[in-house]
């Protein structure tokens, strides 16, 4: 996927509208990779005669590789620039997606999904770092929220498309669609996206400077507050991603196409949350917006507690608190992703990678737990999402409130 860069120098300033479009395309690869798989998991299990634990590994391995590889791609992107890392990552992602679609055993699917995750991490790390390349924190959060509105639209469509693909051609068609998305995004980057890094940092991969910058990032209270907030909030969304197919299809008896339609409503709520975020940030700032959204997370926690106690076999009992949670996540996610990287304008790639690793580690642990916990009732799903909602509220009201506006690192 080598291609000459569009005529633009390093640190080229993109318009906010075009930057939001680019970010939506790049970060949209993540919901495509996860959400297209949701209605496909039961079909994959049946086709490959696989149990619950190895099928959940197709999600968990993806997330683990996604988290670990960011720790490599972040410093590389600081050293050689965003564009080369994007092109290589998208080429690798496309190849891994095709291989996963052709795999004949669940172990092979797990391996190729892990490679998918490693490649996808290059794309997401660069996307988050580009925001810091181009904008100061508050404007960056506005652009990020705008981009995540577009990402939410991708997430709305993904389970709907996957449900139709799985019903018509099986789970392999859903995975093949990921390869098509990766190739199209790579072509767009090759033809239209200039380099955004203001300068290369050759020392970013040297052991001494790298470890010092790593220490500065991890010690920064603002980084820790925002990274933990995103980890808790995304953890709840990941429970929905990994378990909703089994709950809707296995527990509530829905057809894959109908289940995909229900899953997409979570993304619709998320899009609505990003619109709230874009309205609240100019009024309240990042910290104020997050603390207001914590009320939505608290309401979701109460709804999930009621579902866990009653084990109500109802789509409404399941989805109303999910919608509340997703509304809050639509605020927490853009604010948290921007806030975690904001103190590090000279090492945005590394800060982006570390924040992403925190989120991925949380999701991987949840995936391992879900493989053992799902038991044919609503309770594991409700307990998991309710706990994530409660922790999100706690972090927003304590760590983010105290440290979310800390100045940039020295």
* Largest sheet data: none
Helix content: over 70%
Strand-and-helix sequence, N→C?
A: HHHHHHHHHHHHHH
Top-tier CATH class:
Mainly Alpha
Number of strands: 0
Shape label: globular
Number of domains: 1
Report the sheet-strand fraction: under 5%
Count, helices: 14
Content-based structural category: mainly alpha
Mean pLDDT: 86
List the uncertain runs. 1-11
- What is the terminal separation in angstroms? 37 Å
* Second rung of CATH, namely the architecture: Up-down Bundle
If you consult CATH, what is the topology? Answer: Growth Hormone, Chain: A
Rg, alpha carbons: 20 Å
CATH superfamily: MFS general substrate transporter like domains
The gist of it:
The chain has helices spanning 16-27, 29-35, 40-47, 52-80, 82-102, 106-134, 137-169, 171-192, 207-219, 221-251, 256-310, 315-341, 348-373, 379-403. With 410 residues, the chain is mainly alpha-helical. Residues 1-11 have low confidence and may be disordered.
């Amino acid at each position: 996927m080598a291609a000459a860069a569009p005529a633009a120098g390093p640190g080229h300033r993109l318009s906010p509208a075009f930057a939001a479009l680019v970010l939506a395309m790049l970060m949209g690869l993540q919901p495509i990779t996860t959400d297209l798989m949701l209605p496909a998991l039961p079909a994959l299990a049946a086709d490959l005669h696989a149990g619950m634990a190895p099928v959940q590994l197709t999600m968990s391995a993806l997330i683990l590789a996604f988290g670990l590889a960011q720790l490599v791609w972040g410093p590389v992107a600081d050293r050689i620039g965003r564009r080369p890392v994007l092109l290589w990552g998208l080429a690798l992602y496309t190849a891994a997606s095709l291989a996963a679609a052709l795999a004949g055993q669940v172990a092979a699917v797990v391996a190729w999904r892990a490679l998918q995750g490693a490649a996808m991490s290059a794309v997401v790390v660069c996307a988050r770092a580009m925001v810091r390349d181009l904008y100061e924190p508050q404007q960056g959060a506005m652009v990020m929220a705008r981009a995540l509105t577009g990402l939410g639209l991708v997430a709305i469509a993904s389970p709907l498309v996957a449900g139709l693909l799985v019903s018509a051609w099986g789970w392999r068609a859903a995975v093949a669609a990921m390869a098509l998305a990766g190739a199209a995004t790579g072509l767009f980057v090759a033809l239209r996206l200039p380099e955004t890094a203001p300068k290369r940092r050759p020392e970013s991969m040297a052991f001494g400077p790298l470890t010092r910058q790593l220490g500065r990032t991890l010690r920064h209270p603002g980084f820790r507050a925002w990274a933990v907030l995103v980890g808790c909030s995304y953890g709840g969304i990941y429970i929905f991603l990994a378990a909703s197919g089994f709950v809707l299809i296995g527990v509530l008896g829905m057809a894959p196409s109908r289940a995909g339609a229900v899953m997409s409503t979570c993304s619709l709520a998320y899009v609505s949350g990003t619109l709230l975020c874009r309205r609240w940030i100019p009024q309240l700032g990042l910290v104020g917006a997050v603390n207001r959204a914590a009320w939505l997370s608290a309401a979701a926690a109460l709804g999930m507690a009621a579902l866990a106690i009653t084990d109500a076999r109802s789509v409404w009992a399941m989805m109303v608190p999910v919608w509340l949670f997703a509304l809050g996540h639509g605020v927490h996610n853009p604010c948290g992703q921007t806030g975690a990287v904001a103190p590090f304008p000279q090492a945005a790639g590394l800060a982006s990678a570390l924040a992403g690793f925190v989120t991925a580690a949380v999701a991987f642990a949840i995936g391992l737990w879900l493989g053992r916990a799902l038991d044919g009732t609503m309770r594991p799903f409700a307990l998991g999402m309710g706990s994530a909602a409660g922790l999100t509220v706690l972090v927003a009201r304590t760590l983010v409130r105290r440290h979310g506006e800390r100045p940039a690192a020295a």
